[in-house]
Fold:
Amino acid sequence: MEINNYENIILNKQSNYLINNSNSRFIKEAKSAAESFESVFIFEFLESMYSGVEPGEFSGGSSEKMYRSMLNEEISKSISKQGGIGISSAVFNEIIKSQGI
Structure:
């Protein structure tokens, strides 16, 4: 777990270096796309995690389902913005590699 955190720190520093130097607009868009991809992945993970949970006596019915979905979306965005689970770094690197930057 610690190794992944150090890798994320290094990759973020590398991406920040790239953002400040060449092709800054493309790099920013690539980083944003990678974070968005990771956010969607985490959202789907959270949705599938809650799909197997039985509703309790005090569940809110359809309103709770809608709220839960919005909550999962915001949680996934927050996780992604704070470094995520490492997917955005890998996706970002592949985008950069595919463009030859």
